[in-house]
TrEMBL record:
CDD domains: TM_PBP2. One of its GO terms (biological process) is transmembrane transport. Keywords: Cell inner membrane, Cell membrane, Membrane, Transmembrane, Transmembrane helix, Transport. The lineage of its organism: Bacteria, Pseudomonadati, Pseudomonadota, Alphaproteobacteria, Hyphomicrobiales. The complex is composed of two ATP-binding proteins (UgpC), two transmembrane proteins (UgpA and UgpE) and a solute-binding protein (UgpB). This is sn-glycerol-3-phosphate transport system permease protein UgpA. The gene is ugpA.
Amino acid sequence: MHKRVTFDTKLLPYLLLAPQLFVTIAFFIWPSAQAVWQSFVLEDAFGGNTQFLCSGLLADPLGGEAWQRCFRHFDRLLSDPGYWHSARLTLVFSLLVATVGLALALLLAVMADRTLRGATLYKTFLIWPYAVAPAVAGVLFGFMFNPRVGVLAYMLSGLGIEWNHQIDGTQALWLVILAACWNQISYNFIFFLAGLQSIPKSLIEAAAIDGAGPGRRFWTIIFPLLSPTGFFLLVVNIIYAFFGTFGIVDALTQGGPGQATEILVYKVYKDGFRGQDFSGSAAQSTILMMIVIALTVVQFRFIERRVHY
């Protein structure tokens, strides 16, 4: 029997929800609405002269020219080869960051969950990187892999690998992926470790008594019971790869060399704030927001079916 929470006054629930609603409206709904609006207007770099592009639809709703003018920024954007390059790059980047980050975090959580001497110290060290801001993580990896003074770059050169991510686009992309995974791995580790500790030990002991080895116990008992945690982290990591890695890219490569690391979220910033194309940047923000919403819906619609609650 479920107990229903009751409040003494009808106003109290709304007061408790007010801070979160204010944050959501002020920092998500309102900026998103502004981006959608700006993607349908034409304005100068200083915002002094603004023209609504869809005004012609009121006079001629079936006219092809009116619709073409209304979606002028989107049409120009989707015909730009550079935008499609950034879209493909973002897809590969997000998949690698999510899969590699989740796999390494799960491996570390399984190892840390064992009964070891000093396990608490190991767990503390594994959690600490989450306190590092993305921009700071980008600076750290840029310094360690600096081709002139970087310690790790020097070690790679000793192995016969000439490292210079400032001119090699492939190396720059892998370096950004490595920094993004390192920055997010502690967050994934915390949730995986909590999920492992919530699994009843009696189930694992019973499977061991029945003769199941460590690998079989993991794939048949532990991994299915971790699927709710894994599904939650998959959604969070995809969103992180699309939006949260901006600071790493900006501090580490600034989208270069060339456009080798110019993912969509950085292209929005580059075209809007550097190129002063605010309407085109707003159109990119709108498309990026729709992509993330669509990916989240697909994950909840199809992947959640395999989750065992």
